[in-house]
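Below is a concrete protein record.
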Amino acid sequence: MVGLKEELLKSIWHAFTALDLDRSGKVSNSPVLGVLSHNLCTVLNVPHDPVALEEHFRDDDEGPVSNQGYMPYLNKFILEKVQGNFDKVEFNRMCWTLCAKKNLSKSPLLISDEDAFKVWVIFNFLSEDKYPLIIVPEEIEYLLKKITEAMGAGWQQEQFDHYKIALNTSREGLSAWELIDLIGSGQFSKGMDRQTVSMAINEVFNELILDVLKQGYMLKKGHKRKNWMERWFVLKPNIISYYVSEDLKDKKGDIILDGNCCVEALPDKDGKKCLFLIKCLDKTFEISASDKKKKQEWIQAIQTTVNLLRAGSPPPHKEARQKRKELRQKLLAEQEELERQMKELQAANENKQKELETVRKQLEAAAARAAEEEKKRLQTQVELQDRFSLELEREKMVRQKMEEQVAQKSSELEQYLQRVRELEEMYKQLQEALEDEKQARQDEETVRKLQARLLEEETAKRAELEKWHLQQQQTIQMTEAEKQELENERMMKEQALQVAMQQLKQLELERKEALEQYEEVKKKLETAANNTKSWKDKVAHHEGLIRLIEPGSKNPHLITNWGPAAFTEAELEERQRSWKGKKATSE
């Protein structure tokens, strides 16, 4: 049923696409769909339900008509109800009537409209199962070969190869109307008249569409009268029908075939030749062919049909079509796989090319670096040789100078030791000067504390005097009776004030003496500081000698006693006289 549904859909697709469509691709007039659905139900022997159609294409608040497709309705209400008891030719003719007028070419063709209809039906049978429908070059070649063989002409393979090349460069295949134009143009039937081409198309149509495996005139023996009558026999996959003539208008009966049937050749008898027998479960049919060749062909065709029924296989042309389709799919898969492998190989090749290019660039860069390094190495070697020669000469000169300095420094060693001893003595004197400075600072601190104490006493006295003066002012304001007493007290307080003034003066004198002592101590401190500074200057001038006494660094010193720290005997005596003079001045 799936294959039947697919074949029906192809014809319906042609009819549907021929209807008036709006810009969105939907049918603009829903009554047209009603007519189409009614015609389909009529030819397919399916009950028509117009209410279901209107319900399916209702236009309400839920959305416009375009939201409801025709294909869901077609599958649910028509195709699923098809039983197969319909006339395929009538069904296809109805669909052809709807689409032919709009799509059929207006140019004159060498075939009739009936032949064009049959080519259109054959196209639907051989086309690919994808939309829009096309027929691929392989199926075009198969169809043209069948028509050419039916005409009794020779197949022009070279001519079709040229046509196939031109076709493959522009598209994948032909539409139904392009196929009709191709056959109707007579390009592959040159020299044949219209009747021959029409008979060939009809023969191919009968085989591919009507499943006619074989047909022709033969004699059949009657079951009742036992007389022999000429009948037109048509062999199909499960039945042999016989008619009065080949126009198929007056059907006389059927021979139902199944797996239990068999066919046997019979010897000539009763003046009839080329006899064979068809045995079925309920009846037996005796038939006479026109000659032995026809007899053998019919026996073989009927036996092949029975064998296919036993095996449950489809008719030969359908099985061949399925094999061609599977072969195309296999070739397409192999081609896609080959293309995929080619892409992978191409990508791998490109990667290898990139890797080789990278390696080449790396080798070139490495060669350039090696040449540059070799050049630098040679240059460095020359520079090292020159530098080595210069350093060798410089080393010789240094060695000579060192020998001279060793001799000179040996003589200066005793002087250096004497200077060290003198510096140690000077260091002791510096320690004494530092002790004097420390004692002077202590004395200064004592004087400062004394001065602070005297200032506090003076402040207290002043406060007391201010208090007495205040009391005196208060006493003046007393009554006249108390004036005498207050006068006496005032006199006593004045005396006490005089005494206090004298004590204040005495404190002033003591403070001045303290200031003088402070100035004296300050001078001593400055003198001690100057002495300390002079000793520090002396030590700074003898920095080289002090380093010999202090803990030395672990690193070797470049400055020795023969360097900047060294001085002569005259300089030493001059420094000693200067130091003694400064010491005497400070004392």
User: Anything to note?
Assistant: The beta strands are 214-221, 228-236, 239-243, 251-256, 262-266, 275-279, 284-288. The chain has a mean pLDDT of 82.
